[in-house]
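Exercise 3.2. Students should predict the tertiary structure of the chain below and write it as structure tokens, then compare their answer with the key that follows.

Predict this chain's 3D structure.
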Amino acid sequence: MRILVLCMGLLFSDTASAWTLWDAYVARFVQQDGRTIDYAADDKTTSEGQAYTLFFSLVANDRATFEKVLNWANNNLARGDLGARLPAWSWGRHEGRWEVIDSNSASDADLWLAYTLFEAGRLWHVERYETLGKSLLSRIERQEVSDLPGLGPMLLPGPGGFHPDDATWRLNPSYLPFMVLRRFEAVEPGGKWGKIGENAYRMIRDSSPFHIVPDWVGYRAGQGFIADPVKGDVGSYDAIRVYLWAGMLSEKDGYRQELLQALDGMRRELRQNLVPPAVLHGGSGEATGIGPVGFSAALLPYLKVLREEKLLMIQEYRMDWNTVNSLIGANPIYYDQVLSLFGEGWMEGRFRFDESGRCLPSWK
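Answer key:
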């Protein structure tokens, strides 16, 4: 069974210990040229996949993989210049050719890319990474942040397609990891990111009377947060990341306790049924199905900080039972591995986030 307590010696060692899950992930999902492949989605590559792989490369102190992943994203998703344009979110086979399928960007990937570039520049002392991160963050602010009437600045899921009418916007809570917002607030004191963080917390707090976060949330001028006009109150594959982000926040972060209270519906559900559901409805509290094993991995930090040791042990056991050749599942799914790299990596002390959002890898 996986170790449930943080090894402080690992957290502050000079070098990273072997990370078998990361090695298996790279071997299975990352091409030699740096492309991250989602085999469950017609071998497609997303900006999210590139951003997450870039972050884990930093956590693993794997600079060779970092460079390949960054170069592939730059050359294929940003047409050769990440400093000048946001990366396309979807790349794959189209009419017999491998190319950009949808040029719209995804702001969650853009945030993680900018964040990881800042942290790689700081930790590895590479100025060009920080410079590229600043250019990317500036473009995010111009193209993906909008002032919503009665709310203020908010990150939209992308530059286009999330403002269906003059009074309505669609938002995604999982696109707003608070440690990343904290880091941007520190990078740009007096900017919009502090207020965006406040509004992200309000969205999570106000979107469900049952303290359950949906995948998508609507916002209507003069009315505030509403059920998403397209997806309704479903909480599933996107929303699971919000519990993950909250659990990984620094204990010194002022949002952590409030967020955990606003997300208490998941704990209530687990106390009743032991494993996370596939769908948890924010408007009714109704749960259906059994979530994939990656959901259990995502909930490890959340349950750890809530001191739910029995529920934590159950999720750990479920992961152990489903681990084959160091990957989660006999037919490993990209998203399960990513959630496991976050959840298990944090549990093993391979990285932490401080109260200003800085990444603290075990090798530093």
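Discussion points: The chain has 15 helices and 15 strands. Confidence is low (pLDDT under 50) at residues 1-15.
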